[in-house]
Amino acid sequence: PSFKLLLLPGDGIGPEVMAEVKRLLVWFEKRGVAAFNYDERLVGGSSYDADGVAITDATMELAHASDAVLFGAVGGPKWDGVPYDARPEAGLLRLRKDLGLFANLRPAICYPALADASSLKRELVEGLDIMIVRELTGGVYFGEPKTITDLGGGQKRAIDSQVYDTFEIERIARVAFDLAKKRRNKVTSTEKRNVMKSGLLWNQVVTEVHRREFPEVELEHQLADACGMQLVRRPKQFDVIVCDNLFGDMLSDIAAMLTGSLGMLPSASLGEADPVTGKRKAMYEPVHGSAPDIAGKGIANPLAMIGSLGMALRYSFGLGEAADLLDTATANVLAKGLRTGDIAAPGQATIGTTAMGDAILAELDAL
Amino acid sequence: PSFKLLLLPGDGIGPEVMAEVKRLLVWFEKRGVAAFNYDERLVGGSSYDADGVAITDATMELAHASDAVLFGAVGGPKWDGVPYDARPEAGLLRLRKDLGLFANLRPAICYPALADASSLKRELVEGLDIMIVRELTGGVYFGEPKTITDLGGGQKRAIDSQVYDTFEIERIARVAFDLAKKRRNKVTSTEKRNVMKSGLLWNQVVTEVHRREFPEVELEHQLADACGMQLVRRPKQFDVIVCDNLFGDMLSDIAAMLTGSLGMLPSASLGEADPVTGKRKAMYEPVHGSAPDIAGKGIANPLAMIGSLGMALRYSFGLGEAADLLDTATANVLAKGLRTGDIAAPGQATIGTTAMGDAILAELDAL
Ligand SMILES: CC(C)[C@H](C(=O)O)[C@@H](O)C(=O)O
Ligand SMILES: CC(C)[C@H](C(=O)O)[C@@H](O)C(=O)O
C-alpha cells in the first residue's frame, strides 16, 4: 500500500521531534511495510514569518489531499504581537475546522516506568489509562459573534459565543461510547449544565444517545469543575471522558500532566467517516506544546511525536502491526532506562532527541 | 458594635455546618465581641421545595439589608428535574449578581497537619498558599444571549455568551494586585487569548492596569490550560491567580483539591466599596459543595463554614482579633489530631460535625 502524508513540524521543538518521525518513515518503507509519500510544509509562526499567514491556502489543499496530517506544535513568545488572525494558533484552528476534525482523542496514560515523574502519589497514577474525547470544531472556539467592540470612553466589550447544535453533540457522544466499548465500558460526560444552556443540551443529548444506541455502556455525568477535582483526587475512576472544546482543552491538559508522561502523549483528531470509502480525515499531534524554552537545544522528547505516527499507522493506515512494533520499541527503550530530560528521575542520566530516535530505530532493527 | 447577618444554610450538609456557626455567633456575643442579629432563610433546593423559587424576593431584600451573608451550599440530585430558572444554583447566582459581588476570593491553603491528605506528593503542597481571585458577576455565567432554540427536524441549538467589558476586568485586576501587595507580590493572570477575544481583552486590560497602577507587583500571564497544568505540576509557583468566572470555577476547585484540605477552605465574594461608607456587600461560603451523599449523617466537616465566618469577622466587621482567635482555635484543634472523616489519615479516629464544633468552642474557652 501507499499513503500520502503531510508533515507540519511548526514552531519551537516541532521540527526537532518531526525529524525523528521522518527517519521512522524511511525505516518502515525499507521494511516494506508501506510506501509513504510525504510533503513537508510550514505552519504557525514559521509560516507567518515566511508567508504572512499561519497556514497558506496551498498547504490547506495538501492537507485535504493527504491520508493523514502529522502536526508538531505551534506558537512562542516571538509571535505574541502578530495580528490576531495570523497568530500561530490560527493555523491549527483552520486545520481542525476546514478538515472537519470534530473528534479529538487524547489518551492520558501513565507509563509505569515514569510513574515517579508524576506530581501525584504513585499509587494514584500507576496504570492510569484515561481517554479524553474532546469536541474540536465547535463551542466557544468557533462560535459567532466573536468580537471586540469599542464602546467609547475607554471602554471595550469582548464577546465570545459558545454554540452547540444537537448533531455536533450526538456525533462526539457516539465516538466516546464506541471507544468505551473497546475499553472499560464507561463514559463520563462533563459540562456545566447548572450555569450553561449548552451544558444542559449537552447533558440531554448524551443521555439520549446513550439510551437509544449504547444502553450497555455505563454513563455517568459530572459537572466540569467536579470532574477537574476528581481527576486530581482519584483519576483511576475514569475510563472515557467526553466534553466540549473548551472543557476538553483544560481537562485533557490536566489529565496529561497527572500522568507525569506529558512528553509521551500523542493525540488524534478525526473527521467523519466518508460514507463511500469509510475513510476519515485525520491529524495526529503530540499533546505537548512548542516548548520555546528548550527549542533548538536538541533535548526535546520525540516520543509523543513518534507515538502520534503510531496512532496514524493504526487509525488512518490500517497498519496495526507496524504500530504495535513501534509501541514495543518504545516500551523497550524506556525499560532500558533511556530518558530525555523531561522524563528522567532526579540524578538519572539523560539523552537528547536524536539519541532517543536512534534508540527507537535500534530497537526496531532488533525486533 | 452590632451587625446584621443573613444565614442561608441551603441544601445537603449546609444546615449541619451552619449550625456550628450559630453556636459560634452566640459565643462571640457572650464574650462581648459584638452583637450579631441574624435572620435565617431558605435558599436553593430547600427554597424551591417551600416556595417554588431558588430564592424569594423577600430573602433577597434581607440580603441587601445585611452587613454580610453567610451561605452554606446548594443543590443535589433531588432537584435535577426542576425547571432551569428554579434550579438550586439560580439562588446562588442571583445573590452574586444582584448584590454585585464581582470579586470572589478563594484561598487554597494546605494545612501542614493535612498535607498527607493531598493526592500530590507532600513536598509539592506543604505550605501551599494560593489566592484565586475569580471574577464572579460576568462572563459566560450571565452573558446574553443564553438560549436553547428548536431548529426543527430534531435539532436544537444552545447558545451561551461570554461577555466582558473593560471596567469589569479593571476592577477585578485591582482586587488581585491589591491582595498581592499584602502577600508575596505576584499576580498570574490567566485566560485563553489564543482562542478567545475576551481572553485578548482580559490580557490587555490587566497589562494596562498593572503598568499604570501597580508596576511594583510582579505580573505574569499564563494560558488557562497551561495554568491548570502548572497547578498540578508545581503549585507553589503561584501567589495570586486572577481569572474570569468560568476559568475561576475550574481552577479554584482544582487548586482546592490539590491542598487535600477541601473541607477546610472558606471563600469571600465582595462587591464594590460604597463611595461614602467604604462598606462592601459581602457573602461568605465554603468552597465545598452540598455533598448530598453524606448529608444528614452528622459527619460533615464544619471548618470551611467556620472559616467563612472568620473571613466575615475580618473583612466585613473589622473584627480581626476575633478572626485570629478563631484561626488559632482551628489550628489547635487540628494539632490535637481531631479530624472529621474527609481530613483523616487512613486508620485515624474521626469525629462528627457537632463534636468538631464542640472542640472549637472548647479551644476558644481556653484561649
Ligand atoms: C494551541 C491552542 C489553540 C490549542 C487549543 O486551545 O485547542 C491547544 O491548547 C490544544 O489543546 O491543542
Ligand atoms: C454551584 C455553581 C453554580 C457554582 C459555580 O459554578 O460558580 C459553584 O461551582 C461555585 O464554584 O461556586
Automatic annotation (TrEMBL), chains A, B:
Gene Ontology molecular function: any one: 3-isopropylmalate dehydrogenase activity
EC number: 1.1.1.85
GO biological process: L-leucine biosynthetic process
SUPFAM superfamilies attached to this UniProt entry: Isocitrate/Isopropylmalate dehydrogenase-like
Amino-acid positions noted as binding substrate in the UniProt annotation, renumbered to this chain: R96, R106, R134, D225
Positions of transmembrane segments: none
Pathway(s) annotated for this protein in UniProt: Amino-acid biosynthesis; L-leucine biosynthesis; L-leucine from 3-methyl-2-oxobutanoate: step 3/4
Cellular-component GO terms for this entry: cytosol
Catalytic activity: (2R,3S)-3-isopropylmalate + NAD(+) = 4-methyl-2-oxopentanoate + CO2 + NADH
Pfam family, one: Iso_dh
Top-level class of the enzyme under EC nomenclature: oxidoreductase
Chain sites annotated for binding NAD(+): 76-89, 289-301
Keyword Ribonucleoprotein: no
InterPro entries reported in the protein's UniProt record: IsoCit/isopropylmalate_DH_CS, IsoPropMal-DH-like_dom, Isopropylmalate_DH
Domain Isopropylmalate dehydrogenase-like: 4-360
Reported cofactor(s): Mn(2+); Mg(2+)
Family indicated by similarity: Belongs to the isocitrate and isopropylmalate dehydrogenases family. LeuB type 1 subfamily.
Role, per record: Catalyzes the oxidation of 3-carboxy-2-hydroxy-4-methylpentanoate (3-isopropylmalate) to 3-carboxy-4-methyl-2-oxopentanoate. The product decarboxylates to 4-methyl-2 oxopentanoate.
Listed name of the protein: 3-isopropylmalate dehydrogenase
Organism field: Blastochloris viridis (Rhodopseudomonas viridis)
Lineage per the UniProt record: Bacteria, Pseudomonadati, Pseudomonadota, Alphaproteobacteria, Hyphomicrobiales
Name of the gene encoding the protein in the UniProt record: leuB_1
